[in-house]
Structures are given as structure tokens and as C-alpha cells.
Amino acid sequence: MVPQRQALLTGATGFIASHLLPALLADGWSVRACGRRPRPDWFPAEVDYRSVDLTRPEELEGLYDGVTHLFHLAGASSSTSTEEEMHRANVVATRNLVAGAPAELERVVHMSSTSVYGEEVQLPVPVPEDVVPSPSRGYGKAKWATEQEVWARGESGLPVVVLRPVSVFGPGNVKLLGSAVLDVALERWAGLDTVAVHARPVEQRMVHVDDLVAASLHLATHEGAAGHAYNVVAEEYPSSHAVTGILADAFGMGMTLADDPECGLGYEARASAHTQMLEQGMAPHILLTRQRFRFMGKTNRNNRLRLDALLSTGFRFTHGDLEPAIRSTIDWYREHHWVITR
Ligand SMILES: NC(=O)c1ccc[n+]([C@@H]2O[C@H](COP(=O)([O-])OP(=O)(O)OC[C@H]3O[C@@H](n4cnc5c(N)ncnc54)[C@H](OP(=O)(O)O)[C@@H]3O)[C@@H](O)[C@H]2O)c1
Q1: Better pLDDT: 233 or 297
Q2: CATH value of 6-165 in 3.30.70.3270, 3.50.50.60, 3.40.50.720, 3.30.1380.20
């Protein structure tokens, strides 16, 4: 008989966990899930949900009862949080969470980020996981400090695995690629037939959420994974032009290269189209960013990442071909009215 595995899933109300939770259940795990908000309606009845603010140690009472594996996804990013909030939701929350972790846990799977490497100090490229990171922005600094909280418990015997994904996309994503899809939908709504993108291409790095979920499950049980960090990135690195071309085509638009980095519809015009689309029934979930194509504009001297560690565990990507994965994500947004067209 397969021994019963009980997961404690933090950040359960977030984007990545909305895919990991069903995958755990489908794999036969018992799941205790927690987020701060009240229990979401879509959670299956068998999920033991706790509404917990991890920055408040008194709320963690009994959280680990019966738990064999911790999947720690709770955190905050710069898309919606200040530096202070990022510190609290990442570093303080994780310190509290791992302080109470029982020594008998079979695995601690911590969701970090490749932002820990930073963009300014040149690291060996492709970046290996054992490099000394040099995070350059608030989010990367918070995620790196958070990792230290987890590794410290690893040194005292907990079997810790750290995943470092790049920008994650897929159904339900409200930021990053999701916001870029919204930007193109707004321009289509406003009557444009061509999407302008800055002529200087910027190399992107992305991973589909299903691949990240599969890697999380794989590393949660893979013998020998404990004590290691793993970059998680699709092997293909598309340019900003290639990604914009896919988005434009999905909305029946052409693409043009512009000398102006601020090209395209300005924020006020996008916000106005956004208001109209919401009035016409568009769901309000995707984040409208002041900066158009926010996630595609940043160059990064450390963009390429080594994948040998993950691949040597036998893991294989199923959404390595990004174009169909991006197209099917856009289809999902349209089917669920997260973006609409006239
Ligand atoms: N999405 C990406 O592209 C990406 C890339 C690399 C790494 N990551 C990392 O992956 C993890 C999950 O990302 P995501 O995009 O799924 O996040 P998300 O959608 O923003 O969800 C964040 C989750 O964390 C919970 N949370 C935040 N502060 C908390 C606190 N003080 N106490 C308890 N729960 C708290 C939220 O709960 P409520 O909403 O209920 O308050 C929510 O469930 C994060 O650690 C993130 O840094 C994400």
C-alpha cells in the first residue's frame, strides 16, 4: 500500500497553487491548504482549508498536524506589493512557518525565484544554482533573504528543496504575460490594427505553470533532490518580438517595430478602454499595469539559466514549445472572459 502523504500547501489561493492543488489531489495526496482570505468557493470539499496570516505566529497553531510534506508558495511580488509588504509576506512569513516545521517532515518544497540572481552583477552564464546570487531589486532581495530562512532549517536537518522559476504563465495568471495579453486586447478594443513593439529585442524567459507544478511534484519525492536548488525555465528563450507577434496574431493584429521604447497606446487610453471592457462584461482579474508590456521590457545580463540540475533528476518539460502554450493560454483568457473583443 502507498503510504498516505499529507501536503501543507501555503499560498493556496494564489495562481500557481490553483494548479498545484488539483494536481496534488489527482495524485492521491491529502491536502491542508492555507491563504489569508476566506475559503475560496472552488476548493474541493476534501481540502482542509485554513485562513492564516503567516506573519502572525499565533495563527500557525496545529498547521503541521499530520503533515508529511510542506509546499511553501505563499509570498508577495513587486506587481502588487511595496518593499515592506514583500519583506513581511516573504521573509517574516517564512521565518515563522519554518520555525514550527517538525523535524519528521519528509520534504520542504520552497518556491523561490530566479530573481534572486539579480540583473546587474554579471554572473557565470548560463547561471548555475550554486553561484553566489546578487539580487538587484526589492523582490529578488526579499526572495533571497527568504531562501536563507529555509536553508537555515535545511542545515539543521530538514530535507529542503528550492525551486527557482522564471516568469510563470498559464490559465489564471493575472500578472506578467497575463498583463501583456490584456495590453494587446485593450489596443484591439481601442481600434488599433497593429501592435507596436520597441525595435530593440529583449530576450524573454518563461515557464508554463503546468511544467512548474510537475517539477514541484517531481522534486517533492525524488530521492536525492533534498539540499538542492533548481532553476525552472523552458529551454526556449523567445524574443520580445516573437512573444508580441504571437499576442498580436491571436487578436487578428499585425506587429510593427518602433524606435520609441514608449510606443503603443498610452496609459490613459488603455485605462479608458479597460473601463469600457469591464462595463461590457470583462472579468476584472488581470492586472492593468501603468507600464505597457511591463514584464517584457527588462534586459537581464544573467537571463540564461542552467537546467542540468533539474534535467539530471529525470524531469522533462511538456510545454517546452512556447508558442502553442501561449496561444492556448490566450484561448483560456477569452473563454473565461478575462479579455474580450468587440
Ligand atoms: N507567478 C510567477 O511568475 C512566479 C515566478 C517566480 C516565483 N514565484 C513565486 O511563487 C510563489 C507563488 O506565486 P503566485 O504567482 O502563485 O502568487 P500569488 O498568486 O500572488 O499568490 C500569493 C499567495 O500568497 C498568499 N500570501 C501572501 N501573503 C501571505 C501571508 N502573510 N500569510 C499567508 N499567506 C500569504 C496569498 O494569500 P491571499 O491571496 O489569500 O492573501 C496567496 O495565496 C510566490 O512565492 C512567488 O514569489 C512566482
Answers
A1: 233
A2: 3.40.50.720
